[in-house]
Amino acid sequence: MNSMFEGSSSDKLMPIHLEKQTVNRELSLVTDNIISVIEFTYTPWSACLECLEQLYRQQQVTDMHDVWDVQIQFQQWFRNVIRQNDPELQLNYDRTHLQQSVGYIESHYNQMLTVDGLASRAGLSRTSYTRHFKRLTGQLPLDYVNRVRLERSKQLLQITDDRLHDIASHVGFNNEYYFSRRFKQYAGISPGVYRRHHRQEVSVFAPYLEDFLLALGVKPILQGSHRAWGKQRYLQLDDVPEFDVSQRDAEFQAEHIPEFIMLDMGYKTWNLDRFEQVAPVYYVNHDGEDWRAILKSAADVLGKTNRVQEVIDMYEDKATEAKRHLQGRIRKESVAFLRVSALEITLYGDQCGYVGPVIYRDLGLNPDEHVQQWTQCERRVSITLEQLCQLGADHLLITFDTRDSLSSGEERQLLDRTEWKQLPAVKSGNVYEVDFLTWMNYGVISHGKKIDDILRFIG
């Protein structure tokens, strides 16, 4: 990015040349009387650009006071440039004081705290304090204050019998109503429900999230199923009644009405928000299928936080041992995963989703070159028969999606095509069919089953 800013006044501002580099953003200061170029870094670049664009828009001002304001803004910007490029100046001082400010918040969260007051204690302007605080913590100051207050309120809900009004007051909220509203926004459930889950067992329905419940030692009152995919048989919940989420008018039987419901973002597809009329509902947001984060949040709302680390450690130990074994067996041989339905062939990526993090990150297997090239960090992409012919993977994992064929067998017609039979993995007999719902899931139990499958087939 090349651009030029030049002030417009009787005393023109110094010309500034901006050049975008691959690693840093460099600022070259050039005047008619200076031959050498002085290079500065400035982060974040967006803030630098925003300031200069604002100055550029004001370059035609003529009023004396406006010109003065522009000069002051420029000097403040230039001061920031100097400070960022001299480690002996204020930046280290600012960071130390910001860290002290964070400590102050965590010690005084139950007192009246304002951004102006916190900034003053840190010796910074409100704007500078807010900007640097977010850079340090990832949150705005008051959001951070509320997070500390709400985390403390969780502890009090678990270990005391104090009234909600008293807990709200103790952690720094002015009234119980506001506290309850903020708590539900933050935790996903009301304070009363949160406390009840940490005091007693609760009957839960969590369609297609049962993996997380079982990992935490909670047996659901119902299990989700789908008319085309069925239920998650790998969980072995044979004695738990099914509830077909694909039937939009399905209702709960009187003897199996849950006290609490957990739903992932698929609730929109199946119109499951109607369950809010039955029991309190917690919505799980699983961007990127981060099973560890989901496990922790599920444990929090179910009162099972003491189980989380044990579950994570067991999985990681299993993955580490499997990775060590596989590296000694297949070395540089490549792997790809395909999901096949009657309508399309889907290739799964190596960065996110149900499959990639287990195969390529946890187990360290090598993706076929086209996995990275075609998916480009997406969870999955549809590929054509022509693209399928280019897959040179030494090993192919494959699962069949019966949703589009309703178990008529159309999805398996691919296996009779010439394009399929010419694949290297097919010729060498290195194609392994895996269970659909075991692999199209992101729970810790399903991931453990995937490791078992790979060790059985490849290891």
Detail the topology: elements first, then pairings.
Elements lengths: L1 E4 L10 E5 L4 E5 L8 E4 L3 H13 L6 H21 L5 H18 L7 H8 L3 H12 L3 H19 L4 H8 L4 H12 L3 H9 L4 E2 L4 H6 L7 E3 L16 E3 L15 E4 L3 H4 L10 E3 L7 H12 L5 H20 L6 E7 L4 E4 L7 H7 L3 E2 L1 H7 L4 E4 L1 H4 L6 E6 L17 H4 L2 H4 L3 E3 L2 H4 L4 H14 L2
Parallel strand pairs: 5-8, 6-7, 8-9, 10-12, 10-14, 14-15
Antiparallel strand pairs: 1-2, 2-3, 3-4, 10-11, 11-13
Structural commentary:
This protein starts with a strand and ends with a helix. Strands 10, 11, 12, 13, 14 and 15 form a six-stranded mixed β-sheet that branches. The protein is about 45% helix and about 15% strand. It contains 20 helices and 15 strands. Residues about 1-25 have low confidence and may be disordered. The chain has helices spanning about 45-55, 65-85, 90-105, 115-120, 125-135, 140-160, 165-170, 175-185, 190-200, 210-215, 265-270, 290-300, 310-325, 355-360, 370-375, 385-390, 420, 425, 435-440, 445-455; strands at about 1-5, 15-20, 25-30, 40, 205, 225, 240-245, 260-265, 280-285, 335-340, 345-350, 365, 380-385, 395-400, 430-435. Helix 3 crosses helix 4 and helix 13 packs parallel to helix 20. Strand 8, helix 11 (about 265-270) and strand 9 form a beta-alpha-beta unit. By secondary structure, it is an alpha/beta fold.
